[in-house]
Amino acid sequence: MDLQADKVLDTAILFQGPPLKPASNPEAILLTGATGLVGPYLLKALLHRTKADIYCLMRCGDQAEGMRRLKDHLVLHALWQEEFEPRLFPVAGDLSKPLLGLTEALFTSLATKVDSIYHNGALVNFLYPYSALKAANVLGTQEVIRLAARSRLKPLHFISTVAVFFSRTHFQRGVAAENDPPQCDETLKGGYKQSKWVAEQLVLNARERGLPAVVYRPVRILGSSKTGIMDFKDTLCHLIKACIALGKYPRLDTLIEYLPADYVAEAVVHLSLQERSLGRIFHLCNPAPVSYKSFLQELNSLGYPLQEIPYDHWVLELEQLAARQPQEKIYSFLALFLRDSNNLLLQQMRFESQNSRAGLGNEVVCPPTDAKIISTYLTYFQKNGLIPAPSIS
Ligand SMILES: NC(=O)c1ccc[n+]([C@@H]2O[C@H](COP(=O)([O-])OP(=O)(O)OC[C@H]3O[C@@H](n4cnc5c(N)ncnc54)[C@H](OP(=O)(O)O)[C@@H]3O)[C@@H](O)[C@H]2O)c1
C-alpha cells in the first residue's frame, strides 16, 4: 500500500481547452452512486433544480434493468415521480473497472454528451482494507476525472468526506478549515478513509492541472429528515439498538455530528449551480450538533426508559449481552468497535465551513437535530424491525 504513489494522477489525462460554461445551466449530467443513501436525494435535487437529462452510472446488466433499479430505489426513498423517467438514462458500468466498465466508444460518447459530473459513488465500507477499496474509490475516481477531461473540460463535483482529516496532525490542531490540505501519515487509519484521501488528492491534482473541480466534504450522514429512510450501516443505529436492549446508555460528553441525506444533497446541488463555486472546497457540517447525552436522553422522552452508566461499564454490559444473544452478531461487532472509544469520534475536531455558509446563505438550512427528527428516525427503525416499539407503562 503506497498512498503517496497512488495519489499521482495518470499523466496521460490531459486537461485542454477552456472549461464549459455556464456551470449553472447544465443540459446533461453524469451522476454516480444514485442507488446509495445520498444518491437518490442528489438525483431528485438535480431533477428539480436543473432541466438536465441525468446519466446514472450504475451496476446493472443493461439499461432496462438499470431503470428498474433506479425506479425501485427512488420508490424506496419515497422520491419517485413518473415525470422523472424521460430524463433518466441509466448507464451500465462499474467504478472499479478501466473506463468505468464502458467501451472506449461509449466512454467517449458519454464524455461528449454530459456537461457536468457529480461523482458521489464509492464503496463505503469501514471494515475493508485499502486494497479492497482502491479499485472502486481511487481508480474509479481517476476514471471519472479521465471522463471529465475527455472531449471537453467539464466541472467535476466530488463527494469526499471530512474523514480525510482524521490523522494525528489535524486531531492535534483540533480544527480544519476548508482550504487546509489534509495530511496523510500512518495515523490516517482505515481503508475507507485512506481511499477517500487518495481519491480527493487525485481530484485536487486534476484541479491544479486545469479541471474545474469542486470538493464537498460532509460529516457523517443519516437518513432523510422527512422520512428517516436509511440502511442501518451506521454505528449510531446499532448503538441505539444496543441502548434499548440494555435499558442503558453510555456516558458520553461529546457532540454527535450528523447530517440528513436530503440536506446534504440539497446543499451540494445548491452550491454546485453557482459559478463562483468552481475550484472551491466545501465542508458540510451540522451548524448545531447536539451532545450524545441529549440525543440518547431523547430516547427516554420517546418511551424508551434508559439509565445512564459510565462508558466502560456500558461496553462491559454490551459484551455480556453479545454473549447471551450470539444470534445478534451486531452486538459483538459493536462491543469490539467501541472498546476503542476513539471509534465513536470522541477525539473530536471542528470543521470550519465559511465557503459553505457563504454559498448556502439562508436558502438551504440544515434541519435541527431535535426531538422531531430523532422521532422520525426511531419510527423508521421500529417499522423496519431494528428496534422494538416502546412498551406502554
Ligand atoms: N454515509 C456517510 O456517512 C458519508 C459521510 C461523508 C461522505 N460520504 C460520501 O458520500 C458518498 C455517498 O455515500 P453513501 O452513504 O450514499 O454511500 P452508499 O449508500 O454506500 O452508496 C454508494 C453508492 O456507490 C455505488 N457504488 C459502489 N461501488 C460501485 C462500483 N464499483 N461501481 C458503480 N457504483 C458503485 C453503489 O452502488 P450499488 O448500489 O450498486 O452498490 C451506491 O450507489 C460517498 O462518496 C461517500 O464516501 C458518505
In short:
This protein is an alpha/beta fold and 393 residues long. The protein has 14 helices and 15 strands. Helix 5 packs parallel to helix 7 and helix 11 (311-324) packs antiparallel against helix 12.
What does this molecule look like?
The strands form five sheets. This protein has a seven-stranded parallel beta sheet, with helices on both faces. The model has no long low-confidence stretch (mean pLDDT 93). It has two domains: 3-222 and 259-284, Rossmann fold, CATH 3.40.50; 235-255 and 289-348 and 368-381, no CATH class. 41% of the residues lie in helices and 14% in strands. With 393 residues, it is of the alpha/beta class. Helix 5 (130-149) packs parallel to helix 7 (191-208) and helix 11 (311-324) runs antiparallel to helix 12. It has 14 helices and 15 strands. The structure holds NADP nicotinamide-adenine-dinucleotide phosphate. NADP nicotinamide-adenine-dinucleotide phosphate binds next to strand 8.
